[in-house]
Structure formats: structure tokens, C-alpha cells
Write a structure and sequence with these properties.
This protein is an alpha+beta fold. It has 3 helices and 12 strands. A hairpin with a 2-residue loop joins strand 4 and strand 5. The chain binds copper (II) ion (CU).
């Protein structure tokens, strides 16, 4: 068979390719590098989970929305110091468990905290998923009904902060703004 016959690709003749030739050295090297990289990434999944330090810092527990609402109300009764726009302002003592409730479409109550003081901030929802986002800081957390997350927090800046909902939760989502006041 002449060279010109082979190049015709008539369909009767097998097209000549490279796949039955030995793998060149460089390609072998790249396959090896890619395979090792796959193994590293695979190992990183459990390692990142165990040692990555990105998991919530505190308590995780199950709670019914009704129980959580009740707990928040008790917290408000215990430490209420005033009112802001119809919302209770709550000033808990240092080290206290703070309870913040997310619901359509508000963050309840207003929190008044002291700078450089440790607290345990509990977050849960009375209805559907919400997103805790502290503005203007870059601090985000999923707020899920049925789960109580207790995060260890220590405010390191004084000022007036807003809590924004960053999980779309219906028609009033954009109005779901809460408040945290940090005093010196
Ligand atoms: Cu929301």
C-alpha cells in the first residue's frame, strides 16, 4: 500500500494514529504528576475537614424552633436594658450565652456587647434558612431551623454593626436587618 493510499481515509483503511505507539517520556511524566496531584487533593478532603480549622468553633445541638424562640425570650427578659425601634436592646454579662433569633424578616433582639469580652453567640431560625452576615465585617454563618449553633465570639472593635440576611428568605429578605452595638 503506498503512502497516498493511506492518506485517503476511505473508511476501509484504518486511520493511522499515535495511540499504539509507546507513550513519550514527557507525557509519562505529566501523567505521573497529575496522578500524584489527584492523590494529594483527595487526601486534603478529610485533612481539611479535621485540621483546616474552618468548622464552627462552638456547640452544635438540635433544638425545635419553638424551644429556641422560648430560650431567646428568656434571654431578653433576663438582660433587657432598653428599646430600639420597638426591638428590645439586650446587654448580657461577660461570658454569657447570647441568643439571637432569625425569622422572617428580622434579627431579634438588638445586642449590646462589650469590646474584648468573650461570649457564646447562639444562632438559630424560627422558620426557614437565613444567613447571618455582620456588616461591615466579613463574617458569615448559615442559620438553620432545628439547629442551635453556639459560636465563641469576642468583639475586637467597638461601634454600631448591622446584621444582614445573606440567604434569600422571601419577599421581605432585603428588610431583614439587625443590629449589634459594641461598646468600649
Ligand atoms: Cu433571612
Amino acid at each position: 500500500m503506498s503512502e497516498s493510499d493511506k492518506s485517503m481515509h476511505s473508511g476501509l483503511l484504518a486511520v493511522e494514529g499515535v495511540w499504539w505507539k509507546a507513550i513519550p517520556k514527557q507525557e509519562k511524566l505529566w501523567i505521573t504528576i497529575a496522578f500524584i496531584w489527584c492523590l494529594i487533593l483527595f487526601a486534603m478532603m478529610p485533612l481539611w475537614h479535621m485540621r483546616g480549622g474552618q468548622n464552627p468553633s462552638g456547640i452544635r445541638a438540635k433544638v425545635t424552633p419553638a424551644e429556641y424562640v422560648e430560650r431567646v425570650e428568656r434571654f431578653v427578659e433576663d438582660y433587657k436594658v432598653g428599646e430600639d425601634n420597638g426591638f428590645p436592646v439586650v446587654e448580657p454579662p461577660a461570658g454569657a450565652h447570647i441568643y439571637l433569633l432569625a425569622r422572617m424578616w428580622q434579627w431579634y433582639p438588638v445586642l449590646k456587647l462589650k469590646k474584648n469580652t468573650k461570649y457564646i453567640l447562639h444562632l438559630s431560625s424560627a422558620d426557614i434558612n437565613h444567613g447571618f452576615s455582620l456588616f461591615p465585617l466579613n463574617l458569615n454563618f448559615q442559620v438553620v431551623p432545628g439547629y442551635d449553633y453556639g459560636l465563641k465570639v469576642e468583639p475586637n472593635q467597638s461601634g454600631d454593626f448591622r446584621i444582614i440576611c445573606n440567604e434569600f428568605c422571601g419577599i421581605g429578605h432585603h428588610t431583614m436587618v439587625g443590629k449589634v452595638i459594641v461598646i468600649d
